[in-house]
Design brief:
The structure is a homodimer of 272-residue chains. Chain A contains 12 helices and 5 strands. The first copy, chain A, is of the alpha/beta class and 272 residues long. A 5-stranded parallel sheet of chain A has the order 3-2-1-4-5, with helices on both faces. The longest helix of chain A is centred in the first third of the chain and has 24 residues. At the A-B interface, helix 1 and helix 2 of A face helix 1 and helix 2 of B.
């Protein structure tokens, strides 16, 4: 997916958020914004937003000296998500169609940023989400593809949400490879985060090799590309993976909540 | 008021909005964003946001060649607001405390951007707003000051809202000078817009001489400063006037809706 002009103000918003997470030094935060501003004229609109986000978070790391500004944030998110695991697991098991409910739980995980608001009433949000229809629903096709599939490649997104992915993976009951970012980027899951989320018990965790908040194939490792090219079914979580994989020739099932007006307009659906 | 780091992403959002209002040429819009990016390192954080907004809208004008990109938008806003005038006027007249209701109507005018959403149910919003308390309420002090005042200086903000200001000015029943921007800037009212709103019938309209979306005293005309310094009471509408006048030694009554998290945090109140 291309970068839209609307992405540019959003890059600054993200840079500010990440810089504040990394440091309290206002002059350093201003320096991050100044350096992001220097990047703007060079942003190619035909590259995907995660490609630029990659450069922005590099600036944040360089200026603040913090290799993983979201380390604590991610840890809190995973702990919070784990506290909901038993209830959600039982919700799926008691459901008439456990696979569909597990898909919905995994998508709901993508709305919820447990680190953002500690008082967030996750179960209430989950209940309200589960009673909704999906705006774009390829569930039947997904279920059908799964039936004949041996292997499934699952592209993770945020740390915390990983715990919800675990429930879906358990429900699918196939050999799953769970792919994560090649380096810490925003609150996206790395191998360590996936391990902490308990994914190691039920899937093989691999790095995509890509250090962007998405899956940019030309930046992925050869090992990952081999898996990507031979997987029977690919599940992709989140906007960043969608932004980088939209248009790629591969049968990918995208599970995500739409968080920005650009994608909402692209799909002619509403945010949320 | 100083510029906060949160203002920087917002400057880009505003530049994009204004550029889209001025042209459909995506390459020109990108050029606006590139040139705003060039401004970023030079933004002094100890100047007020309208000071920077002034430079941003100059870029929009220069790149797009449109002297007043919001001309049509403002005209629509004024027409829309005028259609509500009779109902609001009667609401004020029927009220137990017409002055207070007129103040509330004038503040409500600052929430409502009639150009933004043509289907906006203004009367419903107005009803819900009028039943609320103000977050910061200096009404008693304002009423008291008015009693002994001969002259009132009223600093206008957006075109459209001007019609709501008219109702308050009629209710006040004093000699009023209504000040507007020195040049078209965003959807802020100019002399022409104030005339179209019918303010010329009940007040003397003057230009502040300032071409920023606020009242930056050092950029105002000598004529305006004389009025400002001798007015018995000053009423200031909107965030831009507040941002540029906060901290100035003068007794100013600020009527505004808080539209951004920076000011909400500064005052420890909620947006809206």
């Amino acid at each position: 997916m291309n970068t839209y002009l609307e992405c540019i103000p959003c890059f600054f918003r993200q840079a500010l958020f990440a810089a504040r997470e990394a440091t309290n030094d206002e002059s350093k935060i201003k320096e991050v914004l100044d350096r992001v501003a220097e990047l703007v004229p060079g942003i190619p609109l035909n590259s995907s937003p995660p490609e630029t986000a990659r450069l922005i978070y590099r600036v944040v790391r360089e200026v603040t000296g913090r290799a993983d500004p979201f380390e604590v944030y991610k840890e809190r998110s995973i702990e919070k998500a784990k506290s909901f695991y038993p209830e959600l697991k039982s919700l799926v098991e008691r459901s008439e169609d456990p696979l569909r409910t597990a898909v919905m739980v995994a998508i709901a995980g993508n709305i919820i940023d447990p680190g953002a608001d500690p008082n967030f009433d996750l179960m209430r949000e989950m209940d309200s989400f589960l009673s909704q229809d999906l705006s774009i629903d390829d569930y039947e096709s997904f279920r059908h593809r799964l039936e004949s599939a041996h292997s499934l490649l699952y592209l993770g997104d945020n740390a915390g949400e990983t715990v919800f992915d675990k429930i879906l993976i358990e429900t699918v009951g196939k050999d799953v490879i769970y792919a994560v970012r090649g380096a810490p980027i925003i609150n996206d899951a790395t191998i360590e985060d996936a391990e902490k989320s308990g994914l190691g018990e039920i899937a093989r965790i691999v790095s995509s090799g890509c250090d962007a908040p998405g899956t940019i194939l030309k930046r992925c490792s050869r090992e990952f590309l081999d898996i990507f090219e031979t997987a029977d079914v690919i599940v992709s979580k989140g906007q960043g993976n969608y932004e980088s994989l939209a248009g790629v020739e591969a049968q990918v099932f995208f599970l995500l909540k739409v968080k920005c007006p650009v994608i909402a307009r692209r799909w002619m659906i509403r945010i949320g």
